[in-house]
Protein: Adenylate kinase
Organism: Hadarchaeum yellowstonense
Amino acid sequence: MSEKLVIVTGVPGSGKTTLIKEALKVLRAMGVDYHHVNYGDVMLEIIRSKKGEVDRDALREMPLAFYSRVQREAARRISRLARLKPVLVDTHCLVKKPEGYYPGLPRWVLEELKPESLILVEADPEEIGRRRTKDKSRRRARELTEEIAEHQQLNRAAAIAYAALSGASVLIVQNSDKGFKKAVDNIVSALR
């Protein structure tokens, strides 16, 4: 029985998903295999089973009570996967909604997931802004550089709070456009 679960988080555009995919390729070549789970995809699957076709970016617009119930159910599903094979969860530390920030990993989610480690991916706010502009596949919120910097700062505080609640370690990985390979190496080292 595995029960190993690691959470990788970062603001939209930080490059976390791209980093995860590259790190998993390297790890597989080393004989280390993780199941990659995108938390939002699991939530979307649950919502679509209840409400039909829903746009992924509409998750941020869901009423909080419904969103929280779906968040909890997604945590249960992901936790069951970790019993079979190590799991790498791709998610957001905080969810920015029009009324403010909500925890992406509230207490009840952490209790279900029982993460071993949290990896927080960061990048220069200007780089993140450029990456978001280039990503035509998503309906990303336009944010000023200062807002992206604030979100990353709050992510750090949230990650430490999550670690205090769960006993998980926190690793911060810088993912600059020029330092991608180093960022991948840092994640691979943490997951071996």
